[in-house]
C-alpha cells in the first residue's frame, strides 16, 4: 500500500489537483499495474483513505460535473510524500514496488536529500551483504539441508545486484544527472508552475 499511497499522492501533486480517473489514467500510463500491482480499485481506495487521513482534500473543480470529485494534496500530504520517498529510497528487501515509486518521484526532492537517502540505502545494503555472505557460508555449520544454501545464495546475489545498482544511481545523482527539485521548478513530479 505504501507504493500506491506514494504514487497517488505524487500524481495529485504533479497535476496540481486531479480527479480519480485522471490519477488512474496517468499511473497506468506508467505501467504501474505491472511493476507496482496498482489497479483501478487500489487507486480509488487510496484516494478515499488519504482523504480520510487528511493527506488529500476533496473539492469540486471547475469542469467537474455531477459525481466527479477532485483532490488536492494538503500540508499533511506533502509531509507524507516526503516520508514515503525517504522510506522508498532507503528500504531494502521489499518487493520493488515501493522502490519503483520512489525512483519515479525522486526528482521532486532536492538533490542533496536524494543523495543522502541513497547513501543510507548503500550503507544498509553493504551491511546486509556482509550478513548474507556470512549466513551463506555457515549453512553447513547450522546443520541445514544442502539445498538451503541455494536460498542464501539467491539472497546474497539480490543484495549484490541491488548494491551495484544503488551505487550507480548515487553516482549519477552526485554527478548532476537528472533534473531535481532544486534544479528547476519543472522537475518531473512537481506541481505545475503558474506564471
UniProtKB/TrEMBL annotation:
Highest taxon above the source species: Bacteria
Cite the Gene3D superfamilies for this sequence.
Winged helix-like DNA-binding domain superfamily/Winged helix DNA-binding domain
Which residue numbers delimit the Transcription regulator PadR N-terminal domain? 8-81
Protein name, entry field: PadR family transcriptional regulator
Amino acid at each position: 500500500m505504501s507504493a500506491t499511497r506514494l504514487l497517488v499522492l505524487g500524481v495529485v501533486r504533479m497535476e496540481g489537483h486531479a480527479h480519480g480517473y485522471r490519477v488512474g489514467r496517468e499511473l497506468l500510463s506508467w505501467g504501474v499495474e505491472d511493476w507496482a500491482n496498482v489497479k483501478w480499485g487500489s487507486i480509488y481506495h487510496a484516494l478515499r483513505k488519504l482523504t480520510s487521513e487528511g493527506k488529500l482534500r476533496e473539492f469540486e473543480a471547475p469542469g467537474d460535473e455531477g459525481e466527479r470529485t477532485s483532490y488536492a494534496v494538503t500540508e499533511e500530504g506533502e509531509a507524507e510524500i516526503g516520508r514515503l520517498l525517504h522510506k522508498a529510497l532507503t528500504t531494502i528487501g521489499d518487493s520493488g514496488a515501493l522502490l519503483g515509486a520512489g525512483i519515479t518521484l525522486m526528482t521532486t526532492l532536492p538533490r542533496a536529500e536524494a543523495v543522502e537517502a541513497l547513501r543510507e540505502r548503500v550503507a544498509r545494503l553493504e551491511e546486509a551483504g556482509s550478513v548474507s555472505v556470512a549466513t551463506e557460508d555457515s549453512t553447513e555449520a547450522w546443520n541445514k539441508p544442502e539445498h538451503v544454501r541455494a536460498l542464501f545464495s539467491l539472497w546474497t546475489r539480490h543484495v549484490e545486484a541491488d548494491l551495484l545498482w544503488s551505487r550507480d544511481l548515487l553516482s549519477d545523482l552526485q554527478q548532476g544527472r537528472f533534473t531535481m527539485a532544486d534544479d528547476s521548478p519543472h522537475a518531473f513530479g512537481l506541481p505545475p508552475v503558474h506564471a
